[in-house]
From TrEMBL:
In the reaction, the free carboxyl group of octanoic acid is attached via an amide linkage to the epsilon-amino group of a specific lysine residue of lipoyl domains of lipoate-dependent enzymes. This is Octanoyltransferase. Pfam families: LplA-B_cat (PF21948). Its EC number is 2.3.1.181. It comes from Maricaulis maris. GO terms for cellular component: cytoplasm. Residues 34-216 form the BPL/LPL catalytic domain. One of its GO terms (biological process) is protein lipoylation. Keywords: Acyltransferase, Cytoplasm, Transferase. Catalyzes the transfer of endogenously produced octanoic acid from octanoyl-acyl-carrier-protein onto the lipoyl domains of lipoate-dependent enzymes. Lipoyl-ACP can also act as a substrate although octanoyl-ACP is likely to be the physiological substrate. PROSITE patterns: BPL_LPL_CATALYTIC, LIPB. Belongs to the LipB family. Its main location: cytoplasm. The active site is at residue 176.
Length: 228
């Protein structure tokens, strides 16, 4: 069933984290109260690390490298920065049967479908969150991360897909707590695909319609200025 009134917005440039988080939490509350449409919000952040609810202090290897933000999403430490498409997904799961497992699977299908449009065979792995690709020598690299939270059955936070970020920035953390040298991080550019963010957004939009249904284009959010 396709649900109407899911908005799709893209913010240009780099969006500061704290105002984005404040907007996202307010929008999720408004959706739960029936006062706002659902929203998929695409953006890029300046370089920063975020700590999920399972983050371990020892996994923050370079605490002074970039700003570090505690966040209520699931998961451990992750990196956000230029060249990485972040999508904050604010959906009302009550409208979708309150099936969290199906929701996460749909997010995975969305990311896998986006990668497939560039000839990349990506998939999920048992015991490891996110979307992964096989590399040579038995190595597997993560190309997209998933970290969501639910409040009153409305989702927020979302996904991060590596289009062309500086992969060296991931060395300041143990990404998602996975230190096994067989598992690393990759991107479309690292895999040999020179894709603009605008072109990737087209693929992401098409894959969304296949996994979730149609959306309505909307203007990007207007954010409050960050606190000094």
């Amino acid at each position: 069933m396709t649900l109407q009134n899911v908005e799709w917005a893209v913010s240009p440039g780099l969006t500061p984290y704290q105002p984005a988080l404040a907007f996202m939490e307010a929008r999720a509350a408004a959706i739960a109260a029936g006062g706002a449409n659902e929203l998929v919000w695409l953006l890029e952040h300046p370089p920063l690390y975020t700590a999920g609810t399972s983050a371990k202090a020892g996994d923050l290897l370079s605490p002074d490298r970039f700003p570090v933000y505690e966040t209520g999403r699931g998961g451990e430490y992750t990196y956000h920065g230029p060249g990485q498409r972040v999508a904050y997904v604010m959906l009302d799961l009550t409208r979708r049967g309150r099936d969290v497992r199906k929701f996460i699977q749909s997010l995975e299908d969305w990311l896998i479908g986006a990668a497939a449009q560039f000839g990349i065979e990506a998939g999920i792995r048992d015991g490891r969150v996110g979307v992964w690709v096989d590399r040579s020598g038995g190595r597997e690299d993560k190309i997209a991360a998933i970290g969501v939270r639910l409040r009153r059955w409305v989702s927020f936070h979302g996904i991060a897909f590596n289009v062309d970020p500086d992969l060296s920035h991931f060395t300041g953390i143990t990404p998602c707590g996975i230190s096994d040298p067989r598992y690393g991080v990759t991107s479309l550019a690292d895999l040999g695909h020179d894709i603009s963010m605008a072109d990737f957004d087209v693929a992401l939009h098409l894959a969304w319609t296949q996994a979730f249904g149609d959306v309505t284009r909307a203007n990007p959010p207007r954010l409050q200025a960050a606190q000094p």
